[in-house]
């Protein structure tokens, strides 16, 4: 059996800590020979040392791997040492765009026994288990904007949301397929009553592609109304499809209501397979708790199930999912350390 | 005593129903002679009858009033009878922009006894009482965008967020003043790690204006992180300032966690007084429950406290707030009709 080449970017803050546990789980489930891990030293420290964020030579190398495992990148908000967003845009978003990660997949599931901030009457007896399919290569994330008269009382700054039929169609189609393979419900989130140009495009494609999926029930919600729906009845959702920024916002809320960002996994998928897909926890680098060994690696480990699925090993993916589920249920609201959680899950997988 | 001229736009769906109760409260607290109500027949029905949304002659007339009371406008999402967003943009947003409603003020308060979707451990023993100051005349709400090759597989649709130092400064300053008059905490919500042009402008103004308010503690949160904060610890907020679209999204979540959109009041304030300000519940026209007499008029009634405050009658505003608070606490989770709630609050005010 040939082993898969996995590029590993631990990144900043708690990134390397949770990534180590993710790799531990991968090795435990698939054996030491299944993967060839190549570690890349990228992130805040490298930038501070060398002024490099993601050199072209590294980008070229990454292009050839089978998948990328990412921890987290980014300095603390308000940090003076690193310009705001430099690493997010130069590394994380750069990879999503360079490798055409059209489908940003973010499952949310409330496991039994996991403390949720929602009241018992909202979740008791209900199944909260949905997937957000977030567009990953367009919208307000294109870096298409500018500013004039910067620093003066006459400054004007713009940000442009770019949406193409091509980009919307592929992510909407992906979402319909997932809905079809799940419980058959797909919800489009947008704000078409205000963002009329982008909204009309999303609506049109949603309706057109929907005709190919007569067995999938279609629903539309304004993004603001979705905020309410996610806290008063999250069990109503099966698959959600939305644009890049709305997807960013809604998946943090989704993570929060299903027990926290420490459990939320994600995949950045290149649909054609031309480029490597990338797997990462939804959470950020959390510099406030870095180095203490207390970050929850569950999201990073769960992301490995998405990676295995993507690499065509659904049985191994399921074993990770099952081990994670069992461990989450076993630990209840007990606070465990990063390595401890990683070891417990690896033990279940061995 | 001269009476104030109030333009009343009941609008669509439950709009007229809740507005009637709001006017009842106004009359009860201030006497029948304090206000001269002029009703304007605008909204879906008028458009369907005449093809007019907001004729220039009406806009001119409205310019001269002391304040505007708005119910709600907008057809059901997905309605085929009325083009998406036609009324929202042609009436509601038109008024906000024409009358330069820079400060969209949205208080959120969790009243004792009100059912919240949050778990007891999140809210018990805590005070959840904050105000969102949402910018109302810029951002993605300018209608600045377009589309080419519409309806084809090559369609490109854009939306432009427009941010000026002038527009940001006035709303940020307003927010600092409010924070100073409250508990002294102001949080800026944005996404400056991705929306770098707009984000830098908001950051700069936030910091600059903040120097005039050394007694106000400043904090920054990414909009996605704010989603989590609002459900895991909403008591941390005092005043929030943010842009038009983030404000739209965050205030629906804020309303949801503090007992629902039926209680959320809002003011669209023209800071110079050159144009009339406008007072409305945060909720929409809710066509699904229109005509049944079951819509909660509390938000519309609370908006009248904001109106009275704005018209320089803080004692009357406080009486409305007190009556609303008392009634909310008295009713607990009992379901009451629209008129019944209006009558109960009016009785407390008489
Ligand atoms: C770090 C940031 C650029 C990123 C995003 O906005 O996409 C993060 O919030 C996420 O959700 O993956
Ligand atoms: C109806 C709609 C245009 C409006 C908005 O987006 O501002 C509403 O959601 C609100 O929050 O007042």
From TrEMBL, chains A, B:
<dbReference type="InterPro" id="IPR050501">
    <property type="entry name" value="ICDH/IPMDH"/>
</dbReference>
<keyword id="KW-0520">NAD</keyword>
<keyword id="KW-0560">Oxidoreductase</keyword>
<dbReference type="GO" id="GO:0000287">
    <property type="term" value="F:magnesium ion binding"/>
</dbReference>
<dbReference type="InterPro" id="IPR024084">
    <property type="entry name" value="IsoPropMal-DH-like_dom"/>
</dbReference>
<dbReference type="Pfam" id="PF00180">
    <property type="entry name" value="Iso_dh"/>
</dbReference>
<protein>
    <submittedName>
        <fullName>3-isopropylmalate dehydrogenase</fullName>
    </submittedName>
</protein>
<dbReference type="GO" id="GO:0016616">
    <property type="term" value="F:oxidoreductase activity, acting on the CH-OH group of donors, NAD or NADP as acceptor"/>
</dbReference>
<dbReference type="InterPro" id="IPR019818">
    <property type="entry name" value="IsoCit/isopropylmalate_DH_CS"/>
</dbReference>
<dbReference type="GO" id="GO:0051287">
    <property type="term" value="F:NAD binding"/>
</dbReference>
<keyword id="KW-0479">Metal-binding</keyword>
<keyword id="KW-0464">Manganese</keyword>
